[in-house]
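Tip: read the tokens left to right.
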């Protein structure tokens, strides 16, 4: 009887540990999310991802991705002005929901800040319908089908948004969704969008 009682807490602890570890698995294939094509402005509390400044001052990765014409480009091509790089995917509901707010940031920033939304979808996924449905006027269709930037940023999560200064050095990153029109985002971007 004493052995049976001592085994139960150990079994529960092992099961709980397994569940926690499985929840942090960054190697799993992404699963489609319901309503991922909803492009409405965020409702309810302002989504605020985790602000990370641990990489401040690090150079932008040299990995190439595809410009809207399908030609290879690197972040170095944008040196000379600040760049806000947003990694997203069509299957990521929070990514798609924040895109209208990124389009608004791109509009407000004008030439002071370049906003790059870089799809992490595979080559066979058409990202055009997301842009058409969203009616984006300022976002362009950059793609990273090999997830080079995703691996370079090493957050294991979408959306991930990284701000680089005019010299190509990281200022901060936000891991998770953000209402880019909200007060927190406005504070983070105040220097760049006025």
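Filled-in amino acids:
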């Amino acid at each position: 009887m004493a052995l049976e009682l001592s085994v139960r807490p150990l079994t529960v602890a092992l099961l709980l540990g397994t569940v926690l570890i499985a929840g942090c698995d960054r190697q799993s294939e992404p699963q489609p999310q319901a309503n991922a094509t909803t492009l409405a402005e965020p409702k309810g509390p302002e989504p605020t991802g985790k602000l990370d400044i641990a990489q401040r001052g690090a150079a932008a990765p040299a990995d190439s991705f595809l410009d809207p014409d399908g030609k290879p480009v690197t972040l170095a091509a944008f040196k000379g002005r600040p760049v806000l790089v947003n990694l997203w995917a069509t299957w990521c509901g929070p990514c798609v929901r924040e895109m209208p707010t990124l389009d608004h940031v791109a509009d407000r920033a004008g030439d002071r800040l370049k906003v790059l939304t870089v799809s992490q979808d595979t080559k066979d996924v058409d990202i055009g319908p997301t842009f058409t449905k969203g009616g984006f006027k300022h976002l362009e269709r950059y793609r990273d089908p090999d997830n080079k930037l995703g691996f370079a940023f090493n957050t294991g999560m979408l959306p991930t948004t990284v701000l680089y200064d005019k010299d190509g050095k990281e200022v901060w990153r936000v891991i998770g969704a953000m209402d880019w029109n909200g007060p927190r985002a406005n504070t983070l971007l105040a220097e760049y969008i006025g």
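Confidence is low (pLDDT under 50) at residues 1-42. The radius of gyration is 19 Å.
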